[in-house]
């Protein structure tokens, strides 16, 4: 098959990693792959072409984009495919086209779609999922072409928003085994993450109050954007002031394999993920995963046979430790601001639902608080033994942290299941079958953008640190 893979860039990141694994696996399977991106990828081994018009809007020079520019981009995409094959690709597989990073791409895809190009639009992130910062405010999403998603929740929502079963595909990511090095003392809990806001670093600091003495929590990488830098500095300053056993920037200069080798376990406290590599990759390095469970991600993995025994769905904070009126105001403001950013009015019943939910609770999830409220809780727990015990009493996971031990049999079992279900052979076989369906099956369907917003913007799932990310 002739396959064109398209993304805005090939710089280091999650989508780039997924795309590169797809390109390599397809090439090994005998397919002819061409990667088309806006920039980056100088060290990649597969055939690639850079089109400046595919870069982020912020990375392109010149006047604001126009309809003519989108038409020019569509022509250039066609031209580079024809230069390689003398014809368009059998499938044009586009990564993350429904987020507002490049205002030319979506109208260019409309043009290609009308010309009969077989499109597969794979979505790693959806702006409707509390990401108004990348929401495309005008126009429809492409109709009558194939779509892909990376978890079952997104599959369900896009089906309910109008897509047919024949034209919507669940496309899991390949999990590449991680390496460990022998001979290291295992003395830390590793949080392998770039510390953006949705990774919920405050919760890692809170967990550090309950780990065994002499152990640390190591956070690997700082954020790369100014938007997250202030928050990151705040957490570093707080950890130092309270003498918490947390190490920052652990992966900046050191070997990741060495850090993984030193880890007792990997932790995750993120409040939002797309595919959820953090729940799978550590097992391949013979390390377990502990921390915050994301149901919509973990359910897919459990359906593949993976088992999790050290995750919690919520980190409960007694309401007596929270300023209820302040919390209500913060949540209401966040909901109103988010809805306005999506050009939506907030129905009165949503605010009522939010307030009634808070008023009915004896406790509230730490992961839904903002940094100010999280900081107050951490300071209280660090200084007050009684408050610390109150948290242990309603959060069994915290009680287990003090004497937690890994389950070697579970690690071996999960590793086998992960390599079986998410290894290269299975993933590329499923991807090639998806391409076959795209090539052979014409679809007639359309995404309702209003229904998508209704499905994703659930006020009872609103997290003050989960609005917008990356």
Mind explaining what this structure looks like?
This protein has 18 helices and 15 strands. The mean pLDDT is 94. The chain has helices at 14-28, 67-85, 105-114, 152-160, 201-208, 226-241, 250-253, 256-262, 281-284, 295-303, 324-341, 348-359, 371-383, 385-394, 396-401, 408-422, 424-440, 449-456; strands at 2-7, 32-37, 48-50, 91-95, 119-123, 146-149, 168-170, 188-194, 216-221, 246-247, 263-268, 289-292, 311-312, 316-318, 363-365. It folds into two domains: 2-174 and 424-461, Glycogen Phosphorylase B (Rossmann fold), CATH 3.40.50.2000; 188-319 and 364-420, Rossmann fold. The strands form three sheets. Strands 3-2-1-4-5-6-7 form a seven-stranded parallel β-sheet, sandwiched between helices. The protein has a six-stranded parallel β-sheet with strand order 10-9-8-11-12-13. The two termini are 33 Å apart. It is of the alpha/beta class and 470 residues long.
At the fourth CATH level, what is the homologous superfamily of the largest domain? Glycogen Phosphorylase B
CATH class of the largest domain, please?
Alpha Beta
Helix share of residues?
A: 40-55%
CATH topology of the largest domain: Rossmann fold
Count of folded domains: 2
Largest sheet: 7 strands, parallel
Instruction: Report low-confidence residues grouped into runs of 5 or more.
Output: none
Summarize the helices and strands and which ones pair or pack.
Blueprint: E1 2-7, H1 14-28, E2 32-37, E3 48-50, H2 67-85, E4 91-95, H3 105-114, E5 119-123, E6 146-149, H4 152-160, E7 168-170, E8 188-194, H5 201-208, E9 216-221, H6 226-241, E10 246-247, H7 250-253, H8 256-262, E11 263-268, H9 281-284, E12 289-292, H10 295-303, E13 311-312, E14 316-318, H11 324-341, H12 348-359, E15 363-365, H13 371-383, H14 385-394, H15 396-401, H16 408-422, H17 424-440, H18 449-456
Parallel strand pairs: 1-2, 1-4, 2-3, 4-5, 5-6, 6-7, 8-9, 8-11, 9-10, 11-12, 12-13
Antiparallel strand pairs: 14-15
Helix pairs in contact: 1-17, 2-3, 5-13, 11-12, 13-14, 16-17
């Amino acid at each position: 098959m002739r396959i064109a893979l398209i993304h805005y860039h090939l710089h280091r990141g999650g989508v780039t990693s997924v795309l590169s694994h797809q390109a390599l696996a397809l090439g090994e399977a005998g397919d002819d792959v061409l990667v088309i991106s806006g920039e980056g990828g100088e060290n990649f081994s597969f055939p690639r072409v850079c089109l400046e018009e595919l870069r982020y809007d912020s990375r392109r020079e010149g006047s604001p984009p126009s309809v003519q520019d989108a038409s020019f981009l569509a022509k250039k995409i066609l031209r580079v495919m024809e230069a390689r094959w003398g014809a368009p690709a059998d499938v044009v597989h586009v990564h993350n086209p429904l987020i507002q990073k490049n205002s030319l791409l979506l109208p260019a895809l409309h043009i290609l779609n009308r010309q009969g190009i077989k499109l597969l639009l794979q979505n790693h992130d959806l702006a409707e999922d509390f990401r108004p910062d990348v929401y495309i405010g005008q126009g429809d999403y492409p109709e009558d072409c194939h779509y892909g998603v990376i978890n079952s929740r997104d599959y369900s929502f896009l089906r309910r928003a109008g897509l047919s079963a024949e034209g919507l595909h669940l496309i899991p990511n390949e999990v590449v085994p991680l390496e460990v090095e022998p001979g290291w003392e295992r003395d830390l809990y590793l949080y392998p993450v770039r510390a953006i806001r949705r990774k919920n670093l405050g919760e890692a600091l809170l967990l550090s109050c309950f780990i065994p003495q002499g152990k640390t929590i190591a956070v690997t990488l700082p954020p790369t954007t100014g938007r997250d830098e202030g928050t990151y500095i705040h957490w570093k300053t707080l950890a130092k002031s309270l003498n918490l056993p947390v190490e920052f920037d652990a992966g900046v200069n050191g070997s990741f394999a060495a850090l993984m080798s030193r880890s007792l376990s990997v932790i995750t406290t993120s409040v939002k993920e797309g595919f959820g590599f953090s729940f799978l990759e550590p097992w391949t390095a013979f390390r377990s995963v502990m921390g915050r469970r994301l149901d919509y991600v973990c359910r897919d993995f459990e359906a593949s046979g993976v088992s999790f025994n050290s995750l919690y769905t919520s980190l409960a904070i007694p309401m007596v430790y929270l300023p209820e009126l302040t919390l209500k105001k913060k949540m209401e403001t966040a909901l109103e601001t988010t809805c306005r950013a999506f050009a939506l009015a907030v129905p009165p019943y949503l605010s009522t639902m939010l307030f009634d939910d808070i008023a009915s609770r004896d406790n509230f999830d730490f992961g839904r608080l903002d940094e100010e409220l999280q900081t107050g809780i951490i300071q209280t727990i660090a200084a007050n033994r009684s408050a610390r015990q109150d948290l242990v009493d309603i959060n069994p996971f915290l009680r287990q942290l003090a004497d937690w031990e890994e389950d070697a049999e579970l690690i071996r079992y999960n590793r086998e299941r992960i390599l079986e279900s998410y290894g290269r052979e299975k993933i590329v076989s499923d991807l090639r079958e998806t391409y076959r369906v795209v090539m052979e099956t014409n679809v007639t369907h359309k995404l309702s953008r209003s229904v998508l917003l209704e499905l994703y913007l659930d006020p009872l799932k609103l997290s003050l640190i989960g609005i917008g990310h990356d």
